[in-house]
Design brief:
By secondary structure, this protein is mostly helical. The chain is 76% helix and 0% strand. The radius of gyration is 21 Å and the shape is elongated.
Length: 274
C-alpha cells in the first residue's frame, strides 16, 4: 500500500503542479474563458490513463501462465525505464517547468480552444500513463488488489490537496527537497520492480536460475510478519530471492543511486572577451 501511495503522491503532484501552472496562467492573463478547455484536456488524460491501466490488467488476467509472466515482466521493465527517466528528468527540468508550460500555453491560446485542450491533455497524459504503468508493475506482487488501489487513490488525493494548497498559496513546501526524497524512495521501489521483472522472466523460462536461491531469510523475515509484508510490498525484498534477482537488484540500485546523489555540476559561463 505504501509503495502505491508513494507512486500516487509523486506522480499525482507532478500532474497537479502542471494543472495549477496552466490554471494560474489563464487566471492571471484574464483568459478564464479557456479554463473549460484545460479541464477538458485534463479529464481526457485521466480517462486515458485509467483505460490504459484497465487494459493492462485485463490483458494480464486473460493470458496463460507463461504469457502472463512474460507480459508482467515486460510491463515491469518498461515501468523501471520510465520511472528512472522521470526521476532524472524532473530533477533537471523542475525549475524551468513552469516557464516552459506557460510558453506552450501561450502558443496554444493563439491557435484556439482545440489547441488548448490538446496541450493540457499532452501535459497531463504523460504523467497519467506513467502512473498507470508503474502502479500495474508494483501491484503484481501484492496478495490482493485492494490495498494497492487504496494506496494509490490516497496518494492521488493527497497530491491534489497539496497542489490546490500551493495554487492558493495556503501551504508552502520545498519542492526540490520533496522531489529529492521521493525520488530516492522511488529508486528503491524501482529496484524492487526490476527484481520482480527478472523473477517473472525466470518464471516464463526466459532466464535460468529459478531454483537457485541466493540465501534464505525465512527465519528472520517471516512472510506473515508486519515488517516482512512491508519490505515485500514496498521494496519487493523476499526471504528467498534467486541469485539472478539479487544481482539484478544491486546492478540497478547501486549505479542509479550514485548518479542520483551526485551533485549537479554548475554550468560554467565564460567571461566576455575584452
Amino acid at each position: 500500500m505504501f509503495a502505491s501511495y508513494l507512486i500516487g503522491l509523486r506522480e499525482g503532484l507532478e500532474g497537479a503542479l502542471v494543472v495549477s501552472v496552466l490554471v494560474a496562467f489563464l487566471v492571471k492573463s484574464e483568459r478564464r474563458d479557456r479554463l473549460p478547455s484545460v479541464w477538458a484536456g485534463v479529464l481526457a488524460a485521466v480517462a486515458l490513463s485509467v483505460g490504459f491501466g484497465a487494459v493492462l490488467t485485463f490483458t494480464s488476467a486473460h493470458l496463460g501462465h507463461t504469457g502472463q509472466e512474460l507480459f508482467d515482466a515486460v510491463a515491469s521493465l518498461l515501468a523501471v525505464v520510465f520511472v528512472t527517466w522521470m526521476i532524472f528528468w524532473m530533477r533537471r527540468a523542475a525549475r524551468a517547468l513552469s516557464k516552459e508550460l506557460r510558453g506552450k500555453l501561450s502558443d496554444a491560446l493563439e491557435l484556439g480552444s482545440t489547441a488548448v485542450v490538446v496541450m493540457a491533455f499532452l501535459a497531463v497524459a504523460r504523467e497519467g500513463l506513467e502512473t498507470a504503468l508503474l502502479f500495474f508493475a508494483s501491484a503484481q506482487g501484492a496478495a490482493t488488489t485492494a490495498q494497492p488501489l487504496i494506496g494509490i487513490s490516497l496518494g492521488v488525493l493527497t497530491s491534489v490537496a497539496i497542489g490546490y494548497g500551493l495554487y492558493r498559496s495556503a501551504i508552502r513546501i520545498n519542492l526540490t527537497k520533496f522531489f529529492t526524497w521521493t525520488g530516492l524512495l522511488l529508486i528503491l521501489v524501482a529496484a524492487g520492480i526490476f527484481k520482480y521483472g527478472v523473477h517473472d522472466l525466470q518464471e516464463a523460462a526466459i532466464l535460468p536460475g529459478l531454483g537457485t536461491p541466493a540465501f534464505d531469510l525465512s527465519a528472520a523475515l517471516p512472510a506473515d510478519s508486519w515488517y516482512g509484508a512491508l519490505l515485500s510490498g514496498m521494496l519487493n525484498i523476499t526471504p528467498q530471492p534467486t541469485v539472478l534477482e539479487v544481482i539484478a537488484w544491486a546492478a540497478y540500485l547501486i549505479p542509479v543511486l550514485i548518479l542520483f546523489l551526485r551533485p549537479a555540476r554548475a554550468q560554467f559561463t565564460p567571461a566576455p572577451a575584452a
